[in-house]
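Final report, closing paragraph on structural work. Over the funding period we assembled a curated collection of sequence-structure pairs, and we close with a single example.
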Amino acid sequence: MKRFYKSVSVGDDHSVQLDGKPIKTPSSVKLVAPSRALAEAIAQEWREQGDSVVPSTMHLTRLANTAIDRAEPLREDIAGELLRFACSDLLSYRALDPISLRTRQEALWDPVLDWAHQTFGARLKTTHGVLFVEQDEEAIAAFERALRELDAWTLTGLQTATSITGSLVLALAIAKGHLSPAEAFALSRIDEAFQAEKWGLDAEAERRARLHAAELEMAGKFIELARA
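Its predicted structure, as stored:
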């Protein structure tokens, strides 16, 4: 749509304003960020728009809309959705072969599972192949407690990070500052990297990977700024 405003500012209440009027979410709720740092970053997205406003380039704005319109009223549902990832977390499933891939997964994923155990008291089981492994109730309960403590803004970023990586553990590692988004993304793509080393790069797959990596970076930034 054509740009309809001249100035962008941040109010004392951390609202983002266009020509002095607060932005509203798709549900007509005033967009008020939990921190000035996040509000300023969202405002900058609006400042950087040209003659046309392109919503697809405004990642923080989209996440903020989601946090306000969806995550706040549906916190329990979102926590439950994220918890289901822990029941089949990417880091729990290792290759049967080749041994070199299996060894790489163990060397890089096991330390992250150890961190999750130390941080949340949740020890996930691992398996080789595609057969489902049922996780201990104690581990799932520990992750549930951790998720219940999070605010809607963190849950929103966590939801994006989990869907991109396929791992609640990796997403939580980003949220806790244990891993950078780039590190977590690389860990989520060990299989793809291994195949690329063997068979070469696929241009379309690499394009999608870059988009996902950028989206994950913004999710991590969103969580960080919301807490600033």
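The chain has two domains: 8-71, 75-227. The mean pLDDT is 96. We thank the funder for supporting this effort.
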